[in-house]
Structures are given as structure tokens and as C-alpha cells.
Amino acid sequence: MKSLCISILITCLAAAQMSAADLGPQPAQPGAETFTLGEFRITSLKDAVNIVPNDGSVFGADVGPKAVAEVLTKAEQKTEAIELSVDALLARKSSEAILIDTGLGPAIPGALAGSLTLAGVAPDEVTTVLITHVHSDHVGGLITQDKQSAFKHAVIKISEPDWKWLQQQPEMAELTRVIAQQVKTFNPGEDVATGIKSVRIPGHTPGHVGYMISSNGQTLLDVGDTVHSSIVSLAKPDWAMGYDTDLAVGRTSRREVLTQLATEHQLIFAPHFPYPGVGWIVSRSDHFEWFPKK
């Protein structure tokens, strides 16, 4: 116990010394890892890394940084901050190239364009963009550095509640203006493409969804931001997540979804888990663990 207290004290001192440049979204090298799912070719696309401080504002928003540090220490991880991947997913079948989420975009800049190049797909070849939710690390890549549509030939599908919410955010006004003519809304739970169905997962944003990709009896669920850290989100799924717009609903939703994923041994893509973010959730008593796909 004494050693744990010392570790937490060191964590607090280290966090205080971290500069703003060490935190937040950081550039990453492009990456593209592909596997087959029935008739689909699925590619995990690297975009960026997000360094989230352990300061009680995001992870463990209801329990504080000391409790989060204890979880990280047990997992033999650094405790002053949590590193999250920022990734997107590409699903290709015949002439369709369907992109799920677009990363941070030119603000970092994100590596999504380079990752698409590695996957052999040009932005103009993307036929559909599916958005899990409208936080900037999922929609930022919808526009280019010169404020043009990044995927000008694609239909952009966003849930009706999230599109309405996005239009109410002043800081997103330019992005909203640029993409408005391409946007087609849907109600959570509806089919959005052949073989892809939206899945309502409430709590994170007003219309947050996952996407279930199905082909020839095989399935993959892009869980969006149901979970963020492959360590903290699974060890303590009932802790509040500061990124959620409704903390209580987010907690309940997270526990329910994780339980179902573990029970059904459902293959998932988690865009903030360590790249490439594809694997399974396994139940362990009152918590869960992550098993990446090899």
C-alpha cells in the first residue's frame, strides 16, 4: 500500500509538470491493416493519438485521478495520462468503399489520408461516410485544410439527433456548412448500407451509434465511443466518462453493451483502443478484459 501511495504521488507531480504540448491529440504515422469479413474487406485506418491527462475531468470523472491511477498501476501503465488511439474503419465490397468516421482532420493533421493511400483508396473513391457521432475526432476529417469536402463524391450519413446537435455548435459551423449538401440522416437502428446496420448506443452524444457489419454469417461491430481505454473503460465500466453528454445513461449503456459483447463473443472495432483496435471483450467477474485479434 505504501508503494502504491508513493506511485500516486509521483503521478500527480508528473502530471503537474506535463506541458500542454504533451497532452491532447498528437500526430501519428499512417497505418492500414486489412482482413476479410465475408464479402467485405475491412481495413483499420490509423489517424492520430490522443493523450488524455489523468486529472479527473475525463476518466473516472466521479471518482477522481487517484482511483484511476490505482487501475493503471495495477495494469503496469503510466499513471499521469492515458494514451488513446484515434482510428477509422474502411469497409469495401465490390464498387463500394464505406468509411466509418474520419478522424481529427487537418487540425493535427491526422494521418487518415495517408492511411487510405496505404489501403489503396483515394478520397474521391469513398462512396459513403458513416459517422458514429459528431465529436471532432470523428468528423474533423470530413473537410480538408482549405475547407473543402474531403470526400466530395460520398454520401455522409449521420444520425438525425446528432446532425441536429452538430448544427447547434458554433465552433462546428464551417464544417456543417461544407458538408450539408452531402448529409443524409437516419434514425438510430436503421440500415445504412447493404450489410451495415446502425446500432443505437445512448449516452455519449444525443444520437451516438455503432455499426454492425454483416456478411455470410460473419459480423463486426464498430462500437464508436462506447468505450475509450482498453484498460480503464473495461476495468471500471461503471465509472463516469467525462466525454459523455449524459453520464448516467453512458454508464448504464456501457455496462449493458459490454455484457452483451462478451456473452455473444462479438468481434468488435474500438476506434480508441490500441491500433488496430479489432478484437473481443471478455467478461471477468465484475469487469471486462480486451483480447485483440491476432
Structure description:
- There is one protein chain.
- This protein has 294 residues and is an alpha+beta fold.
- It has a single domain, classed as Ribonuclease Z/Hydroxyacylglutathione hydrolase-like (Metallo-beta-lactamase, Chain A).
- It has eight helices and 15 strands.
- Strands 1, 2, 3, 4, 5, 6, 7 and 8 form an eight-stranded mixed sheet that branches.
- β13 and β14 form a beta hairpin.
- α1 packs across α2.
- The longest helix is centred in the last third of the chain and has 18 residues.
List keywords for this structure.
seven-stranded mixed sheet, alpha+beta, disordered N terminus, eight-stranded mixed sheet, Metallo-beta-lactamase, Chain A
- Approximately how much helix is present in the residues? 25-40%
Structural class, from helix and strand content? alpha+beta
Major sheet details: 8 strands, mixed
Overall body shape? globular
CATH superfamily: Ribonuclease Z/Hydroxyacylglutathione hydrolase-like
Here the CATH topology equals Metallo-beta-lactamase, Chain A
Termini gap: 36 Å
Average pLDDT confidence is 94
Order of helices and strands: HEEEHEEHEHEHHEEEEEHHEEE
Beta-strand proportion = 25-35%
Over all CA atoms, what is the radius of gyration? 19 Å
Brief digest:
The chain is of the alpha+beta class. It has 8 helices and 15 strands.
SSE layout and pairings?
Blueprint: H1 2-17, E1 24-27, E2 32-37, E3 40-53, H2 65-74, E4 81-93, E5 96-100, H3 112-119, E6 128-130, H4 136-139, E7 155-159, H5 160-166, H6 173-179, E8 183-186, E9 191-193, E10 196-200, E11 209-215, E12 218-222, H7 232-235, H8 247-264, E13 268-269, E14 278-284, E15 287-292
Parallel strand pairs: 5-6, 6-7, 7-8, 12-13
Antiparallel strand pairs: 1-3, 2-3, 3-4, 4-5, 9-10, 10-11, 11-12, 13-14, 14-15
